[in-house]
Amino acid sequence: MQPQGDIALIGLAVMGQNLILNMNDHGFTVVAFNRTVSKVDEFLAKEAKGTKVVGAHSIEEMCAKLKRPRRVMMLVKAGQAVDDFIALVAPHLEPGDIIIDGGNSLFGDSERRRKELEAKGLLFIGTGVSGGEEGARHGPSIMPGGSPAAWEHVKPIFQSVAAKVEDGTPCCDWVGEGGAGHYVKMVHNGIEYGDMQLIGEAYHLLKTGLGMSADEIQAVFAEWNKGVLDSYLIEITRDIMAFRDKDGKPMVDKILDAAGQKGTGKWTVIDSMEHGIPITLISEAVYSRCVSALKSERVEAAKVLKGPGDGKIKVADKKAFIDSIRDALYASKIVSYAQGYMLMTSAAKAYGWTLNYGGIALMWRGGCIIRSRFLGKIKEAYDNNPKLGNLLLDPYFVKEVGDAQAGWRQVIAAAVTAGIPVPAFSTALAFFDGYRTENLPANLLQAQRDFFGAHTYERVDEPRGKFFHTNWTGRGGDTSSSTYTV
């Protein structure tokens, strides 16, 4: 019997099942496999009934049913499970065949796997897949990287099943070599953390600061979703506010305020430290989840640590202040994406990738969790200037931040006065003010470092890269310490 499978997919959790059905809808024959093989039969008898999906009960059978070059995609838990499946699959493949990791793997692992598999004559793709269960079924954002020679063999499948923007362009294109695909997905997830934290802070201001009901807040998010904040996360926040429990009360009010996280935001922050890139907003978003997890401690601290007044924000014009909250959210969001792009730019230089920054914005424009109208403007910015140094310097975003700045500052000042935490709003503004400030107090910091550790400094009246040391006390020597520059 001639092989009939266009691609195999390992991992029949909901994401895997939905992506298989999506591929089937677009005319591709998928071979389905799962470690617990009974799940294959269940899938074929239920969700995949009446489709062209083919089942396999062993790795050997799965590979035998695939056309050359064989394409084997995994949607399994990141880490050891990926390596375990690669070890099981690789012996049944031949040179030129392709292994695809579609999970949330760390980009360094993808780089290692590419090298190991290419040494065996096999090709590897590490691809970010964003959009959740719904995206997998109806069109996700797909961010592939790895072995360039593999792209032409998976491109028709990936671009067919990916989400499409208004003109039909797929939210999927080649990102770059090695771990580039998973790196871009990692930054996407970090930005997702930031977006969610910003929305949460806006919600906190509306609920606690202004004392608004869930219905009133729902109306605000519905209105915001019609403007510059139009996005999937604003849209679902609107819908969450309208959702009622069985007793008719808002479901959101019954959910414990202790957030979970799976680690991709943390990875982004750790990698930013390696590159010396200040992704301060994503960092605050990660740490804010950590603070939220201290629920029992916060309950006790609330009995002892008192803030100003009753925590309410007094405003003369409520509607105008709500508009200012929108401006603070929008301006902070711009800063977050600017920082994310700073990190990708630094990583591309460090790892030798050629990233299409406008193309990345397009890949995020549909299908993924951070999809929004806003991303179209980022694509335009990089299309207009592919060498744009920082998103904040694009003329469109210069004007947008300028227009939002007064409201942004007013909201943070009001929150601080009322004792309402807005760490992401605040750090975004602090970064903006630091980035636009020609002279920061780091000159004093450098003097201190040289005083106690002979770490040297540069002078304003000498060329950059020339370092000096001062014997500050008269008792020190002229020998300087080694320098570390980020």
Catalogue the unreliable spans.
none
- Secondary structure: number of strands: 8
Strand order of the largest sheet: 3-2-1-4-5-6-7-8
Mean pLDDT: 94
Rg, nearest Å: 26 Å
Structural class determined from secondary elements: alpha/beta
- Write down the secondary-structure element order: EHEHEHEHEHEHEHEHHHHHHHHHHHH
Overall shape: it is globular
* Quaternary structure annotation: single chain
Beta-strand residue percentage = 5-15%
Major beta-sheet overview = 8 strands, mixed
Overview of the molecule:
This protein is α/β, with parallel strands linked by helices and 486 residues long. Helix content is 52%, strand content 7%. The chain contains 19 helices and eight strands. The chain has helices at 14-25, 38-45, 59-64, 80-89, 107-118, 132-138, 151-161, 180-209, 214-224, 232-242, 264-275, 280-292, 295-304, 318-351, 357-363, 374-384, 395-418, 423-435, 442-453; strands at 7-10, 30-33, 54-55, 71-74, 98-101, 123-130, 141-146, 176-177. An eight-stranded mixed β-sheet has the order 3-2-1-4-5-6-7-8, sandwiched between helices. Helix 7 (151-161) links the parallel strand 7 and strand 8 (176-177). Helix 11 (264-275) packs across helix 12 (280-292). The mean pLDDT is 94.
List the keywords:
globular, 7% strand, alpha/beta, 8-stranded mixed beta sheet
Please outline the helices and strands.
Layout: E1 7-10, H1 14-25, E2 30-33, H2 38-45, E3 54-55, H3 59-64, E4 71-74, H4 80-89, E5 98-101, H5 107-118, E6 123-130, H6 132-138, E7 141-146, H7 151-161, E8 176-177, H8 180-209, H9 214-224, H10 232-242, H11 264-275, H12 280-292, H13 295-304, H14 318-351, H15 357-363, H16 374-384, H17 395-418, H18 423-435, H19 442-453
Helix pairs in contact: 1-6, 5-8, 8-11, 8-12, 8-14, 9-10, 11-12, 12-18, 14-17, 14-18, 15-16
